[in-house]
Here is the input.
Amino acid sequence: MLGETASGKKVVFLAAGRQDRAVGCELRPCSRAEKARILAPQPLSSQYLIRNSGAGPWPGTDPGALSTHAHSFALTHTPFSPRSPQAEGRGHSERFNSRDNMQWASVLLLAGLCSLSWAQYDDDPHWWFHYLRSQQSTYYDPYEPYPYEPYEPYPYGVEEGPAYAYGSPPPPPEPRDCPQECDCPPNFPTAMYCDNRNLKYLPFVPSRMKYVYFQNNQISSIQEGVFDNATGLLWIALHGNQITSDRVGRKVFSKLRHLERLYLDHNNLTRMPGPLPRSLKELHLDHNQIARVPNNALEGLENLTALYLQHNEIQEVGSAMRGLRSLILLDLSYNHLRRVPDGLPSALEQLYLEHNNVYSVPDSYFRGSPKLLYVRLSHNSLTNNGLASNTFNSSSILELDLSYNQLQKIPPVNTNLENLYLQGNRINEFSISSFCTVVDVINFSKLQVLRLDGNEIQRNAMPEDAPLCLRQASLIEI
Here is the structure.
């Protein structure tokens, strides 16, 4: 290769193995022997050997300068004298040959690499298509089948429909799991609506149902075993039909161990249905013709919270309510009761006994129900002779309705009472001691509403200390 000295003279550097030597004929006179030795072919250097994968010698090179190795070639530089015109021309030719040789070497090297890459796809003429696909998926292997991702179920738990082979007809649809007479909405799959359809019988109930509605039809019987297929029922609505007690199966409800609400109101029942499941929480039997409630009619219903028996013909209840320890609401209004039930449940909060023939209430009758809030005894036959002095002196009662009875005096009430209805009686005096035993700044009644209209009290009959005792009253009507 060419170089320059510090004085600007051109020199030729020759490569020979791992040692480099510089000869400058301009620095001193050179003999013909030295020039011949310089211009002679140099031995092949190991650092210029290039693997050629079986390629032949380069064009324009001296075959004698090639190594005897069949797969190697050598790039050599022939030294020349830069001052000699012949040598300089020969040097230019050698430099161009070296440049051409390097270009050819690059071409052959690139061709060798391409031949190796092409050899990978000799069996696949569409190797370029696999290459493009491999750029789209990092998991693709050109020698393996195209990898499909494993199937994963739908994350929301939606079940797949039944699969069938292509070309074969789809399987026939399954029969509809809902009676033709009813409606089973898909958005509420556990409910069956059969109301207001003039049905005269109970249709089949699918096992998945929890809420069935048969109200306002012409159903007259509840056949035995009609609910045996759907033992998970929670609600049964049978109100507004023509069901009679003689046509109700004896054990038609006993297998429904999860039943919570039973609507049998507005029918023609004359007896209490039973046996009933222990899980029952609400029992609607109002607007029937029931005349009696036996002591064991409600046996085992420890979870019952509401019992509706209004608008019947009940004359006696007895002790049927004592075992209902979870009962909160008891409605026996519009019957023919002459006595209040024997003993009330301890959890009772609402007692409705209006429109009966009750004429007396035992002393301390309400103390067994410390949570009692509302008592309605209007439209009965109560007299002062049938009431003890402490009958209504219960600290828990907030509302007491004794209107439309035969009372002549205001019965004593507790100071915690807030609403007292006494209209439509025969009361002829305003006794302040019925509200406050002691009248002072500390002791007073919490009464807010007092109705005494429809009685025999004169407007000027109110005592002078009434405003002090009834200081929180917002309405006193005489």
Summary: The longest strand covers residues 10-16. The helical segments are 32-39, 85-119, 127-136, 466-469.
